[in-house]
Amino acid sequence: MNRDVVISGGGPVGLMLACELRLAGVDVLVVERLPEPDQTIKAGSVNLTTAEAFYRRGLLPAMDAVVQQNFAQIQKFLESRGGGGPTAVPVGHFAGIMVTSGGVDFDDPAFRDVGPAARVVVIQQQAVEAILAGRAAELGVEIRRGVELTGFDADADGVTVHLSDGAPVRAGWLVGADGGRSRVRKLAGFEFPGTDPAITGRQAMAELTGADALPAGWQHGSGGLYVHGPTPGRMLTVEFDGPPADRDAPITAQELEDSFRRVSGADIRVTKVHSATRFTDNARQASTYRLGRVLLAGDAAHVHSPFGGQGLNLGIGDAVNLGWKLAATIHGWAPAGLLDTYTSERHPIGEWVLEWTRAQVALMRSDVRTRALRQVVADLLHTGDGATYLAKKLSGVLHRYPIDGEHDLTGRAAPDFAFADGTRLGDRLHDGKALLLDLADHGDLRETASGWAGRVHVLTAKCDSEPALTGVLVRPDGHIAWAREDGSTAGLEGALREWFGEPA
Length: 504
Fold this sequence. Notes:
By secondary structure, this protein is α+β, with helices and mostly antiparallel strands. The chain is about 30% helix and about 20% strand. It is built from twelve helices and 22 strands. The strands form five sheets. Strands 1, 2, 5, 6, 7, 8, 16 and 17 form an eight-stranded mixed β-sheet that branches. A five-stranded antiparallel β-sheet has the order 11-12-13-10-14, with helices on one face. Strand 19, helix 11 and strand 20 (about 455-460) form a beta-alpha-beta unit. Helix 1 runs parallel beside helix 4, helix 1 runs parallel beside helix 7 and helix 7 (about 310-330) packs antiparallel against helix 8. The longest helix is centred in the C-terminal third of the chain and has 24 residues, at about 340-365.
């Protein structure tokens, strides 16, 4: 059996990548060792750039429905603790120092033309996975559950993938999206340098007694940190006595209860555990995301503590960056070196996330000097500038790919431009194609792009939200490759060749 791509791993990253490839007409097989989706408690939110990625593919309505249910639960929980209200909506935290939307300047230029994706924040990883699985099925992606990659043989022309359910599959490419303990990464020989773990974290959905008086949110106790909420039964502890002796051992109610008591000092009881997991601050990153015909995405390429909730966001960003580039390579029109820009664009962002999480662990410690430093950082984050800075970092709006260009939008994720016909940019990217915006009815611009018909769509429209812009080239992943305000086409042909190959 021949396939264009085999993806090992059917979590959100593998499914998002499969959807991106299938949109581009690529034959893709996803294999997932788990027979059913993992219901263990994981990420509970996404950032703005991830929500925008879903929005650009038409997934916003399905996710919005889940978000509204979650907000109702959170609001009820906060009200039971004497909180709530429009200014109490959290935008994120740094080392457990919570920042709410009331202190953020959303008129900052980095948030311009955010669009409807801004409302999709609080959504569980399991819900994201379910929606992506449904979308993959609609697109005709074959997903084999309960099937494990047992090995592979890579050569210059492709990869022979050995699976637990039968005959080998021959594919042009293999992508490891199989988690932090990635078998693909290990078998392929990717270097995975980083720092060893120093903490033990526990997170659970459980039934508790004696917790009614506990405040909501992140709290610093004598031996670490704990969180109760923001939904009923959700609990988290962090202790700084080293990594767990056996991370895979079953987590008991007694273990959770003991940890929560040590950290909080509260006399709580854990009467039932619905879902629980351990985590550490092991922080490692593959030195490259590609070795020949084998690529990595998501946790297979980088692992870190979950503080700040960046793992799911980082993986979805990998998927949308890699998908169109790998498809272009398979279809034969990719310019030289296009696939290598996957590493050069995504690796620095992964490196930032690792450093961001390491800094948080350092600031969470309980010694007197760290507590003093944490108070200084808290004072800064609770200023208008500090809150806005944190919101911009966590949302991803400051990430910029190293793309040459004179305009300040070049390399950034495109704002959700509002057009005169009532549509927005996100509405125009559902098919996964690149889009050249002709915002000044410029015949020369359309003529320049004519050689790339089929790879780059052209939209002639008036942009009400950015009237100064005359032309913008948006890559399939939503990042801007070229922009002008003077009506000129200077640099456009070069950008088209750089990202979309030679004209047909």
